[in-house]
Write a structure and sequence with these properties.
The protein is 42% helix and 15% strand. By secondary structure, the protein is of the alpha/beta class. Zinc ion (ZN) binds next to loops.
């Protein structure tokens, strides 16, 4: 099992895109500064989507323009060609393009079938500026909110098409939080067997309380990166009943105690989660931020 894993802080994007409370650009940048200070290697800072459909992300360009100078790599999300071009033009280090493994959800999420989304992704990789890394997230990799089960063979067809385009990384997303550790082992194992050199990232929602177990299963199965969000905030506006991501500080607590290196500070992440909770004006799902670390003395 790997002794280190990269954490990608996604609260500025996934975390607040589904909230009633709209954070100001200034507050988003303050959140990003906290993620940088906590030691996140990469941060998903915004998504370049239609502001009419996702008003929480209407200031994507302003957020991109205000990012602090840091070693941290900044990622922008895109669901179509226009979003991808905006992301590249904004000068972010990485564009994360989303395809959806099921047609119905792909249609609801980005107004096209999976096949069209794969074709556009291939075009995007081909025209990306040299300085922009291009990754891909396959949403609904473990199940679809409309079609139900997504078969392994269907997923692997999509993975193959994505891999052919030449991304630097493939992320499997459990968008609606239905996966169990057995599913993670099976699907990550299948992708690794087919593409041994492709870095694999996992994006996990904790909708059915399997998120942290799935993260562990992912590390055992050989993923190189895990997405998480301060306080466990998050959700998808186009997936019914979608709830938050795994909480960064809960994940760090588990990994720190298990000796898995992340380069992130648990204490700084707890502070960031508490700060974000205040900004949103409601209780967030994270648990370690409420229970405190253990042992206390190490933190005194
Ligand atoms: Zn998500």
């Amino acid at each position: 099992m790997s002794t280190s894993v990269e954490i990608i802080e996604v609260s500025p994007r996934d975390g607040i895109q589904n909230e009633d409370t709209l954070l100001s650009t200034e507050a988003k940048l303050a959140l990003i500064e906290r993620a940088v200070a906590a030691g996140a290697a990469r941060i998903e800072v915004t998504s370049f989507v239609n502001p009419k459909r996702v008003p929480q992300m209407a200031d994507a360009d302003a957020v991109a323009a205000g990012l602090p100078e840091a070693e941290t790599r900044y990622i922008g999300l895109a669901l179509n060609k226009k979003g991808f071009e905006r992301c590249c033009a904004a000068g972010l280090d990485e564009a994360n393009y989303v395809v959806v493994a099921s047609d119905t959800f792909c249609q609801r999420n980005q107004g096209m079938k999976t096949e069209d989304s794969l074709r556009i992704f291939t075009e995007c990789v081909a025209v990306a500026p040299e300085k922009t890394d291009v990754g891909v997230t396959i949403a609904a990799s473990f199940g679809c909110p409309f079609e139900g089960e997504v078969s392994l063979s269907r997923l692997m067809d999509v993975v193959e098409r994505c891999a052919e385009a030449g991304p630097h990384e493939i992320a499997l997303a459990d968008t609606i939080g239905v996966a169990t550790p057995r599913d993670i082992a099976e699907r990550v194992g299948a992708v690794r067997a087919a593409f041994p050199d492709m870095p694999i990232r996992l994006h996990l929602h904790n909708t059915r309380n399997t998120g942290i177990a799935n993260a562990w299963a992912g590390i055992e199965a050989g993923v190189t990166a895990l997405d998480s969000s301060f306080g466990g905030v998050g959700g998808c506006p186009f997936a019914p009943r979608a709830t938050g991501n795994i909480a960064t500080e809960d994940l760090l607590y588990m990994l720190d105690r298990a000796g898995v290196q992340t380069g992130m500070s648990l204490d700084a992440s707890i502070e960031a989660a508490q700060w974000l909770e205040q900004q949103l004006g409601k209780t967030v799902p994270g648990m370690v931020m409420k229970a405190g670390v253990f042992p206390q003395a190490a933190n005194a």
